[in-house]
């Protein structure tokens, strides 16, 4: 039986996003990175190990996920990495006081369509404050009917699809999992759409 706090597992998307970070590790030292919906926080831990200044976050309503973030940091000798309670779609003092960031990470945050707009509202807020930042996200294709395209347009965001083979993440063993369901993973980089309509 899966824990209702889904952040208690390393989902295949986290492994794929961690692979992307590893392939781009030379660009990470000194970058300011925020992982949202971090859970076990594999991507954030990899980014920190590669020299990025990382902040991990998960919903303030999921204390076990926040504890999981802290435990991952301690197990990986990263006691200095801050862990914040940030709930998607909610403007909080923690969100308002965040230091500038370069990269937002999110692995498998798009798993419940009811959360899609809250996630993109939070991402839009962060990108508005940090116009040159990007949101690197991996997601598991669970339904052909689920799409964020209309929400990206609504929030003036654009996305670039990143083929998994371009960073060696298309190998069967990489995203395999004993967890239930299909494991078709996609990756995209989301950024602010330019005012010229692109």
Automatic annotation (TrEMBL):
Keywords per UniProt: Chromatin regulator, Cytoplasm, Developmental protein, Methyltransferase, Nucleus, S-adenosyl-L-methionine, Transferase
Catalysis: reaction(s): L-arginyl-[protein] + 2 S-adenosyl-L-methionine = N(omega),N(omega)-dimethyl-L-arginyl-[protein] + 2 S-adenosyl-L-homocysteine + 2 H(+)
InterPro entries with a match to the protein in the record: Methyltransf_16, SAM-dependent_MTases_sf
Listed GO CC annotations: cytoplasm; nucleus
Family annotation (SUPFAM superfamilies): S-adenosyl-L-methionine-dependent methyltransferases
Main subcellular location of this protein, as a coarse class: cytoplasm
Pfam families the record matches: Methyltransf_16
Keyword Transferase: yes
GO MF annotations, alphabetized: protein-arginine omega-N asymmetric methyltransferase activity
The keyword Nuclease appears for this protein: no
GO biological process, alphabetically ordered: chromatin organization; methylation; regulation of gene expression
Domain of life of the organism encoding this protein: Eukaryota
Location in the cell: Cytoplasm; Nucleus
Role of this protein: Histone methyltransferase that dimethylates histone H3 at 'Arg-17', forming asymmetric dimethylarginine (H3R17me2a), leading to activate transcription via chromatin remodeling. Maternal factor involved in epigenetic chromatin reprogramming of the paternal genome in the zygote: mediates H3R17me2a, promoting histone H3.3 incorporation in the male pronucleus, leading to TET3 recruitment and subsequent DNA demethylation.
Membership in a protein family: Belongs to the methyltransferase superfamily. METTL23 family.
Assembly and binders: Interacts with HSPA5, HSP90B1, TUBULIN, UGGT1 and UGGT2. Interacts with TET3. Interacts with STPG4.
Record-given protein name: Histone-arginine methyltransferase METTL23
Name of encoding gene: Mettl23
């Amino acid at each position: 039986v899966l824990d209702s706090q889904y952040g208690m597992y390393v989902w295949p998307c986290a492994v794929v996003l961690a692979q992307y970070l590893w392939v781009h590790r030379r660009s990470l030292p000194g970058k300011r990175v925020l992982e949202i919906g971090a859970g076990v926080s594999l991507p954030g831990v990899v980014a920190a190990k590669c020299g990025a200044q990382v902040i991990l976050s998960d919903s303030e309503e999921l204390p076990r996920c926040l504890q999981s973030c802290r435990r991952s940091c301690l197990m990986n000798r990263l006691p200095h990495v801050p862990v914040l309670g940030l709930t998607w779609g909610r403007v909080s003092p923690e969100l308002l006081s965040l230091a500038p960031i370069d990269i937002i990470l999110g692995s498998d945050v798009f798993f419940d369509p009811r959360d899609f707009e809250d996630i993109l509202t939070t991402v839009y807020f962060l990108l508005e404050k940090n116009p040159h930042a990007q949101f690197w996200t991996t997601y598991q294709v669970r339904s052909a009917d689920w799409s964020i395209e209309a929400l990206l347009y609504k929030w003036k965001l654009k996305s670039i699809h990143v083929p998994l083979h371009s960073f060696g993440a298309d190998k069967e063993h990489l995203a395999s999992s004993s967890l239930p369901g299909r494991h078709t993973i996609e990756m995209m980089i989301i950024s602010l759409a330019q005012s010229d309509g692109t």
